[in-house]
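Worked Example 4.2. Read the sequence first, then its structure tokens.
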Amino acid sequence: MIPAKVKQVLDSSGLVALEFEPGSTPTAELAAQRLGVATARIAKSLLFKSKEGTYHLVVCPGDKRLSSGVLKRSIGSKVSMANAEETERVTGFRPGGVCPFGLEGVAILLDKELGGLGIVYPAAGTDATGVPTTLEQLARITGGQIVDFSAMD
């Protein structure tokens, strides 16, 4: 079931989540198979914590790996990936279902590469959902900052 705070954001934005069998889309690869799209079109959401204690949610293509150096340059601080417990505490979502909708107190960084993919699919707060949307819609709805991570390699 989609969390109420996510459903409210989706409803007010005119977006509709696709829902599947519980546990069927916990990774970008499995989500891509379930949706019948390239793995890159799965907008994976990864939570990082800066050495100052601030949190940053990076939303990027499902087949992309970001180096710690790129993240440090974009955030301006050394970062580490949040563990599962910390991710759930900060976002309210368990790994596999983390999404950029309905977050508070977390900076959202949207990878510019998502814009070249057309429709992309972030999760909707569970490991069995995908939300067809675009980079522009994500930026408008979440207030996220579009970042060109490839320019920082």
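Now turn to a second chain, presented in exactly the same format:
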Amino acid sequence: MTVTQSTEVTSNLLEFLAARLKQPWQPDADLFTAGVVTSLFAMELVVYLEEAFGVEVTGDELLLDNFRTVRAMTALVDRLRATA
């Protein structure tokens, strides 16, 4: 994964969250601490990552910490793409 691809993933996720949450979001802001993630929205994030970035999030990757911040989700996409 190149820096450019990671930057694109981060930008894409920030745009998605801003549209979905109706507010701008920071890459290191904790979605769960902020209280903006419901269990339904958490699953929506999983589906979004899979569809937008062509990855498959399996059971061992369904950890809260992988979805806590945009940076964590970017790192998850990077790892999943690297092993695909």
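Notes for the reader: The two ends are 11 Å apart (CA to CA). The helical segments are 3-21, 39-53, 70-83.
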